[in-house]
Every structure is written in C-alpha cells, then in structure tokens.
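Technical note accompanying the year-one report. For the benefit of new consortium partners, we illustrate the data format agreed upon in the data management plan: each record pairs a sequence with a structure-token string. No post-processing was applied to the example shown here.
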Amino acid sequence: MQVFQPYPFHWVPGSGQRHASTDRRPDGALAYPAGTSVATLCREQVVADNSEIGWLWPTCEGCNTEAHRIARRQRTTETEWSI
C-alpha cells in the first residue's frame, strides 16, 4: 500500500484572496505567521493575513489552477494514475 504524501504547497490568505505557496513555513507552524511575506503559485508576493476573515476570502484563480496541476502530477507520480 502506498502512503500519500502531503502536497508541497500550503494555503495562505493575503492581498484579499486565499493564495497557495511552496515557501517553507516555520518549523511546527500550521500556517504562515501574519505579516510574513510569501511567494505564491500565481507568482505574486503577498503578506500573510491570518485573521479569521482572511480564510474566508475568495481563492486566487491562478493559485487554484497551479495547485490542481501540482496535485494531479503528484497523484499520477505516487499512484500511477493518469488524468
């Protein structure tokens, strides 16, 4: 049985949208600390906003598209599925 590895990206609210990033989070952190500058999958640089409302912002279309591409590629690699 293969064990599915977590995706290499993390979601982060910033600049009025929920973005995704492959930047490393601080050890033990479940989210990027508020105020952290983060490079996103849509090629923007945003400042993390971990407010409650930030997690309710709409998802960045560019980050969502790229996150799905990464997830499909990872699933194909790890499980030999083809999409």
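Partners are asked to follow this layout when depositing records. The beta strands are 10-14, 17-21, 37-39, 45-47.
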